[in-house]
Amino acid sequence: MILKLGTRRSLMAMTQSGLVADELTARTGRAVELVGVTTEGDVSKAQLAQIGGTGVFVNGLRERLLSGEIDFAVHSLKDLPTGPAEGITLAAIPPRDDPRDALCGPAKLADLRRGARIGTGSPRRVAQLRALRPDLDVVPIRGNADTRLRKVTDGEVDAVVLAFAGLTRIDRLEAVSEIFEPDQMLPAPGQGALAVECRSDRADLIELLATLDHAPTRAAVTAERMLLATLEAGCSAPVGAYAAWYDEIVHLTGVVVGYDGERQIRLSESGSPDDSERLGRDLALRMLAEGADQLMGESTS
Ligand SMILES: NCc1[nH]cc(CCC(=O)O)c1CC(=O)O
To answer: What is the ipTM of this complex?
Structure first.
């Protein structure tokens, strides 16, 4: 039987789902067919900072998993809410792509003109951009990566910030003028990674999909997501987190930035990959002890 893989319809989503489908076929010999699904996040014109964090890109796919219309689904992991979903299992987290953010514009950040207009709706990117260049005019924009890049070519904004992994998937690396290192801009928890979900009662499928799982990526993104969950922040909060993995140790860094970019709480901690949930929780608790709560509260008001 051909397995039905549910995916959003954007080029980025179709590309990443296609790669997962090919990988599953290569590893298990099972044929996979893509099924395009439109989600609330694709339709709504509201700013993500308002509607985000509630799984707007994810819920439509989960409904079709539960109804049996599709067998499994591929999401961008950073769009996945941190809470559990009834009846749904996170069956695999494949090897992560580049987690960094990229500037797409005519020059590197330091070389943009004073007061240049930068388009991004993400409070995390807004706050970190302001920390790097307080003079910039950061304006909210929405739409998929292609639409955002067009706003640069049309002159509506001077530059935009997008995930490097997404730009790779839609073959638009020529638009990149600078890649931000994590010490300049920490990515969103889970950025660059994918999530493969299926129904919890499909034991056969869970076993099959497990062949796609990459343990180091799972440990790293688990730490990042636990940090986010413990801060009780969603994808619309000014929270960055990145866990690197080397010498069999997970090195997690988290940041909370005030909306004006002036104040930030940035801390790091290392631990065993077998205990990555505790690593994320411990670091978040240290950030809260330093006032992360108050800083996040100011940012959303
Ligand atoms: N919120 C939209 C979204 N979800 C995942 C990605 C990029 C790809 C990824 O992080 O895996 C993007 C676009 C962006 O932030 O540029």
So the answer is: 0.93
